[in-house]
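INTERNAL AUDIT FORM
Audit reference: QA-55
Scope: verify that the stored structure record matches its stored sequence.
Auditor: D.O.
Record contents follow.
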Amino acid sequence: MDTPTPTITELEQRITDLERGISHLESSNADLSEMVSQQWDLIDRLNRTVEMLYKRVGAMEPTIEAHKPPHY
């Protein structure tokens, strides 16, 4: 049982479909790359904010010495 040989038109259509699919994947990849970049920027900003808040809270906490009763 021989499979029919595709015509030039069919092959051209397959190539066109593949090119269209590749173009779509490249566009999706660029979009995802941009989103990941934006998310990393946000994560960096959030990490800096959390670090700053930890420092501020740490500066506000009285030391154990400040809680000792006067008779110590």
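Auditor finding: record pair retrieved intact. The mean pLDDT is 90.
Action required: none
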